[in-house]
From TrEMBL, chain A:
GO cellular component: cytoplasmic exosome (RNase complex); nuclear exosome (RNase complex); nucleolus
Composition-biased stretches (Polar residues): 22-32
Species of origin: Penicillium daleae
Family that this chain belongs to: Belongs to the RNase PH family.
Domain of life, per lineage: Eukaryota
Annotated InterPro entries: ExoRNase_PH_dom1, PNPase/RNase_PH_dom_sf, Ribosomal_Su5_D2-typ_SF, RNase_PH
Keywords of this entry: Cytoplasm, Exosome, Nucleus, RNA-binding, rRNA processing
Compartmental location: Cytoplasm; Nucleus
Name of this chain's protein: Exosome complex component MTR3
Principal location listed in the UniProt entry: cytoplasm
PANTHER family linked: EXOSOME COMPLEX COMPONENT, EXOSOME COMPLEX COMPONENT MTR3
TrEMBL record, chain B:
InterPro entries assigned: Exosome_comp_Rrp42_subfam, PNPase/RNase_PH_dom_sf, Ribosomal_Su5_D2-typ_SF
Signal peptide, first to last residue: none
GO molecular function, one term: mRNA 3'-UTR AU-rich region binding
Gene3D superfamilies: GHMP Kinase, N-terminal domain
Keyword Ion transport: no
Protein name: Ribosomal RNA-processing protein 42
Subcellular localization(s) per the UniProt record: Cytoplasm; Nucleus, Nucleolus
Highest taxon above the source species: Eukaryota
Coiled coil stretches, renumbered: none
Gene Ontology cellular component terms for the protein in this record: cytoplasmic exosome (RNase complex); nuclear exosome (RNase complex); nucleolus
Any Gene Ontology biological process: nuclear polyadenylation-dependent rRNA catabolic process
Predominant cellular place of this UniProt entry's protein: cytoplasm
TrEMBL record, chain C:
Domain Exosome complex component N-terminal: from-to ranges: 8-45
Cytoplasm keyword on record: yes
Key words of the record: Cytoplasm, Exosome
Pfam family, one: EXOSC1
Domain of life (superkingdom): Eukaryota
Limits of the Exosome complex component CSL4 C-terminal domain: 86-190
Ligase found in the keyword field: no
GO BP term, example: RNA processing
Location relative to the cell: Nucleus, Nucleolus
Listed GO MF terms: RNA binding
Cellular component annotations (GO), alphabetically ordered: cytoplasm; nuclear exosome (RNase complex); nucleolus
Annotated protein name in UniProt: Exosome complex subunit Csl4
Length: 318, 383, 243
């Protein structure tokens, strides 16, 4: 027996809360897929605040507004399982600080990014060691930020950006089979949130950057497949994957409005069958990128307001 | 290891002086007619040697070597595995809440799953959990398993993951192991992607003798094994007689923009001065016969981490030697930055949407780079 | 022109055209316009009659409520504009000695005293990194809180030949610095990958705070000696001239 006998151990394997069939049937609405209540181009509200962590040189906290069905389920729970989740994450910036001794001389600011899901962030528990998807997200974030900062103003120094994701977006509705559309669409929303939050934290740390860089997501979704499968996919901004039956293609951008430039673009899926309005001769991927840029513009408005607010507060105090 | 820190970025910092960088940039950004260090045209690939089926222990394998000596080997192995249906799906079907939906999801479960394809990349000098190998394998895997028309997929026309389904309870699991044999001299993506493409093209799965929902058993005869990506001759050409419109594995192209020019398959020196670097995954559209886009990812251009040059007017050792009017900053129309001609400045900022659109268009257009690459790969003798 | 300037700016905000202003710290130029690159109050430094024709636009890191009147009008400006709060060549820094070797002393930089703050008499108006110099120094001079935070500070070397201007070949490092001393030094160069190089070869540079072997704060009695007020014992140091 390797178990520790000095304390009462939990069961060796995981357990699930009991879900009774009566419970499921009584609240049919709770087990239905969440429906998107927003217009296709309407974004979720974002809560963003900077300077919450006093020991870091810059920090920010970001939260997406829960979807209408999630808010309803929280107010009046019918099922143990929430219909969807909303993004919550905290970002800290440490530095500029000296590079580790092993590092070579750099005339520029050296950026390192760490994205970590809290173990309880997703429906499936995440381990404490960063897995491939978290490292992948870190590279995306690094690309997005490195284009925005003015690295040559901080020679010989490093900047660490650490993001903890407290609640992550679902990749699909929890009731769907895991393979109905298995690509990790939720990761794209998480990345967009990370970009916006990190940008606020960098501004809070007074690191020179070209512009506040904001993240935005757009997707081509084909819903109501029950009636027809011939309905062409529609372009939606800021999609919550839990609200859609099938996402064909999605795109996340990091966008700087002052320069009209994209520092990070991640597009995947089949975007060739988009149905656009008549007279719109853009190709699917161009429409998708434009949609994501529009979403990022919305996030940028929140971002600029949050940075200005914390600046005015500090100036007022001094 | 000295490049440990650089490994954290997706790119490697080149060891070129600011003067060299500036020279490269100005010759690559000449309007309409970029001059590449090796004399290629902007859309031309480096010459390479390729062979397939080199490893007898695999289901499919390939080796590609570039002229600069970098080589990659890819081995594909397949295993039969039991399909585990998600607990939620089963629970829901048992609960009987919405029978029709349960049915639909049951059929969706047959559609295959992205996690059935496993990809690992080994690059000398990098740990396998370093950012570069992780980023590269995610990038190539996501286009491989990419959602290629799950719904309208008829028989075998779907993406890779649909083809891995044996029946409702069994599937193939595919392991793609990529080995780079030398320290990467350039960003290794084109090499790895082309080699993976060839290896998948040559991958064969044993012929199934069982029927329907039986536990699968297979023909021992390797000679009758079937290609994972069917050949034109084997599938009797009932729908597609053109030959070029068969399903092919995707291929990921590395594209850079320098000034107003768009350059494919950059070598190490060229990528060091790129304004923007994009990895574009394309494949053949099985219905239309044209190319279609599967994914785009930006890659962090190493030019952002380069050492800046010092204009003569600011150089202390040149003080008084030059008239201050001699080097005047001018506006670079592509980036909008003020630059002194001939003095290198690390790139900053992002990429314009019009440039991205142009890059994708060049890759996808009929008779463009994408078709050329795919045709070239099909020309490799797959024995 | 000045009326169109916002009182505070956030990164990416357009401030003005390079026709009217020249870009100072905290700003960058894009498509012939000056944009803010950090968040902070917008400051206009009037043009220097001799060298410049345009007023300089900058965004201040110092978040004090009163607008900073740059001392440019009184002091002749010869230094380059400072784009960051890092130690630069010719910066005056305060550093704590962490190791004394035969040929060099290793120090970790605590505070960069940049030009604007050095001329300001009120220490509360320093930049956020440098606020409360007194408390940083007292905690750093306390022998109990060493080591843990040194990894996060910029390291620097004082080489034997940079300790003083006279009798350079007679320098014995043990008689110049001891571990734990607080040194005022000037940055010679950005150095190699891990160290800056400092010099104390000026009268106003050298040890400013030191404890004796008995652990008491000492006071300077000459340019090369300090004394313990309790035991009365003297110790040798390269002492900075007190103001």
């Amino acid at each position: 027996m390797m178990a520790d006998r000095r304390r009462i151990n939990g069961p060796p394997g995981g357990t699930r809360p009991a879900v009774f069939a009566s419970n499921l049937q009584s609240g049919t609405s709770a087990t239905d897929r969440a429906q998107r209540q927003r217009q296709p181009s309407e974004l979720r509200k974002i809560f963003l605040k900077t300077g919450l962590i006093p020991t870091a040189s810059g920090s920010s906290y970001l939260e997406f507004e829960p979807s209408a069905s999630l808010a309803a389920a929280r107010a009046n729970p019918k099922s143990l399982i929430p219909p969807s989740s909303a993004l919550k994450l905290a970002c800290t910036v440490h530095g500029p600080k000296p590079l580790p001794r092993s590092a070579a001389f750099s005339p520029n600011l050296v950026l390192t990014t760490h994205i970590k899901y809290a173990p309880f962030a997703a429906r499936q528990r995440k381990g404490h060691i960063r897995d491939a998807s978290e490292r992948d997200l870190g590279v995306h974030l690094e690309t997005a930020l490195r284009g925005a900062i003015i690295a040559e103003r901080w020679p010989k120094s490093g900047l660490d950006i650490t993001i903890t994701i407290l609640e992550a977006e679902d990749d699909r509705w929890w009731g769907s089979a895991p393979d109905s559309h298995d690509a990790s669409w939720g990761m794209m929303n998480v990345l967009a949130g990370c970009i916006t939050a990190a940008s606020a934290a960098i501004a809070d740390a007074h690191i020179d950057c070209l512009d506040l860089v904001a993240g935005g997501v757009a997707a081509l979704v084909s819903d109501d497949s029950a009636s027809t499968s011939t309905v062409a996919p529609k372009l939606m901004l800021d999609t919550d994957p839990a609200e859609h039956r099938s996402i064909l293609s999605a795109c996340v951008v990091a966008y700087m409005p002052a320069r009209d430039e994209i520092t990070e673009l991640w597009l995947k899926g089949d975007s060739s069958k988009a149905s656009l309005e008549d007279g719109d001769d853009r190709t699917g991927h161009e429409a998708l990128i434009d949609g994501a840029v529009d979403a990022a513009r919305g996030a940028h408005a929140v971002l600029a307001e949050a940075v200005r607010e914390s600046l005015l507060k500090t100036v007022g105090q001094a | 290891m000295s490049n440990q820190r650089q490994a954290s970025s997706a790119s490697q910092v080149p060891h070129l002086s600011p003067a060299e960088l500036s020279y490269l940039y100005s010759s690559l950004s000449l309007p309409k007619t970029p001059i590449r260090p090796d004399g290629r045209s902007p859309t031309q690939f480096r010459p390479l040697t390729a062979e397939t089926n080199i490893l007898p222990g695999t289901n499919g394998s390939a080796r590609i070597g570039f002229a600069d000596g970098t080589q990659a080997i890819v081995g594909v192995k397949a295993e039969v595995e039991k399909t585990v249906l998600a607990n939620e799906t089963l629970a829901r079907n048992d609960g009987g809440a919405g029978l029709d939906r349960g049915e639909q999801e049951g059929s969706a479960a047959v559609g295959g799953h992205g996690s059935w394809v496993q990809m690992s990349i080994e690059i000398p000098g990098f740990r396998d959990d370093d950012a570069l190998p992780v980023f590269l394998s995610e990038m190539m895997r996501e286009s491989l398993v990419g959602a290629v028309g799950t719904r309208e997929a008829s028989d075998m026309a779907g993406g890779l993951k649909e083809r891995l389904v044996i029946n409702k309870r069994w599937h193939w699991r595919l392991y793609i192991d990529v080995l780079l044999l030398s320290q990467p001299l350039a960003y290794p993506l084109p090499l790895l992607s082309l080699t993976t493409h060839l290896a998948l093209l040559s991958t064969k799965l044993p012929k199934r003798k069982s029927q329907g929902e039986e536990d699968p058993f297979f023909d021992d005869d390797w000679a009758v094994a079937e290609y994972l990506y069917p050949r034109p001759s084997l599938s009797s050409g009932k729908t597609n007689s053109t030959g070029s419109s068969f399903v092919r594995p995707p291929v990921t192209l590395l594209v850079i923009s320098v000034g107003e020019n768009i350059i494919f398959d950059p070598n190490r020196e060229e990528i060091a001065v790129a304004d923007a670097v994009l990895a574009i995954s394309i494949t053949r559209d099985s219905e239309a016969g044209t190319l279609k886009l599967l994914s785009i990812r930006t890659v962090d251009p190493p030019s952002r981490l380069t050492q800046p040059g010092v204009p003569n007017s600011e150089n202390v050792s040149m003080l008084g030697a030059v008239a201050p009017t001699e080097d005047v900053a001018v506006l670079n129309p592509a980036t909008g930055e003020e630059e002194v001609p001939g003095v290198w400045r690390p790139r900053r900022g992002g990429v314009k949407r019009s440039v991205i659109a142009e890059m994708v268009k060049t890759a996808l257009k009929k008779g463009g780079v994408g078709e050329e690459v795919l045709e070239g790969l099909e020309g490799v003798e797959v024995s | 022109m000045a009326t169109s300037l916002p009182p505070v700016a956030i990164p990416g905000q357009r401030l003005g055209s390079i026709v009217a202003y020249s870009a100072g710290p905290g700003t960058h130029v894009q498509q012939s316009n000056i944009y803010a690159s950090i968040a902070g109050p917008v400051v206009v430094d009037p043009a220097q009659s001799k060298t410049q024709t345009k007023a300089t636009l900058r965004v201040s890191r110092i978040l004090s409520g009163t607008p900073q009147i740059s001392p440019a009008s009184s002091a002749p400006i010869k230094q380059k504009p400072r784009y960051n709060t890092l130690p630069a060549v010719d910066s005056i820094v305060l550093a704590r000695v962490t190791r004394v070797q035969k040929r060099q002393a290793t120090v970790s930089i605590l505070v960069v005293l940049d030009e604007t703050s050095a001329t300001t008499s009120d220490p509360s108006k320093l930049a956020s990194d440098n606020d409360n110099v007194a408390s940083i120094l007292t905690t750093a001079a306390n022998p109990e809180n060493h080591s843990s935070t040194d990894e996060l500070r910029f390291q620097a070397l004082i080489r034997k030949e940079d300790v003083r201007a006279v009798e350079k070949d007679r320098v014995v490092m043990d008689e110049m610095f001891r571990v734990g001393d607080i040194v005022r030094g000037s940055v010679l160069s950005l150095g190699d990958q891990s160290f800056y190089y400092l010099t104390t070869a000026r009268n106003d540079l050298g040890v400013v705070m030191a404890r004796s072997e008995a652990g008491n704060m000492m006071f300077p009695i000459s340019w090369k000696e300090m004394r313990d007020p309790v035991t009365g014992a003297g110790e040798q140091r390269k002492v900075a001239r007190p103001y």
